[in-house]
Amino acid sequence: MSFAWPSALLLLALVPLAALGYLALERRRRARLGGLGSLGQVVGGDGRAWGGRWRAVRRWLPPWLVLAGLATLVVALARPHAVVSVPHQEGIVMLAFDVSGSMAATDMEPSRMDAAKAAASAFVERQPEGVIVGVVAFSDSGLSVQVPTRDQAAVLAAIARLNPERGTSLTQGIGAAIDAITDAQDGVQGYYTDRSPAPDQAPVPAGPGSQDAASVVLLTDGEATSDRDPLAGAKAAAAQGIRVHTVGVGSAAGAVLDIEGFRVYTQLDEPMLRTIADMTGGTYHHAASADDLQAVYDSLETRLVVEAESTEVTSLVAALGLLFLTLGGVAGLAWSGRLP
Hints:
This protein is of the alpha/beta class.
């Protein structure tokens, strides 16, 4: 157990002083009553022993309860924190953003990249409780730019920083998203970690979409310019049971880009995106219909996760202290007609 205000525990030194003060007052009171004699004593061998023990309980239990209550309230004043196992429902969604040069095309207003950002931001803001979101950016390589988190502001800020860059590798994007999901499920909280050695035997492939609590939302125009096998990432996701929901950004008519003096034609490759979604048990959507992205949430289930969290338990400790004080006061009034 830790404390937010540990200096408050110094007040515990007053509790023994209070106990000594009570003992002094009790001796003085009994000295004044000494000449009055004893009334209502239980006579006989066993009765006398039992009566003595019961009188001792009635005499000392109330003040000790009060002292325990005062000590407990002092501990509560120090704001104690305890590490407890907290169960909650959790789902993981990785937003995999295509940041290749073709995402600068303007066949969607104001551009493919801006349309993807808008669709993703609306997606994040509709995030239900218990779903954590991370962000991956990919062009000819993939990079996790925001580990999965419940902090919506951090996710939205990561989305806002994205800008178009080089070529497109769908495999790298999906692979980076799968790695981020695996790290989140294993409890890894950063980019650099000492991983366990790879298993001697290859894991048994899972059925496509078998991991209902984890999915990837791939926002891209679908043009794979840097992949030898553009479906390799989809095959890896399907083998791990991770759904890939694809979001097409762009138009079938396409657009012409001026890149370093060259005119490049680019268009939305919907057949590729539908194939990736079908292979992994996901769904295909078009970024222009952002409301349809709610279907991704509808297909996402949650899992029960138990995490060790540092939780402030001041209220519980304070309630225990008040309970001791109340019991001590009630016992004193019931047995001796006065407060301890």
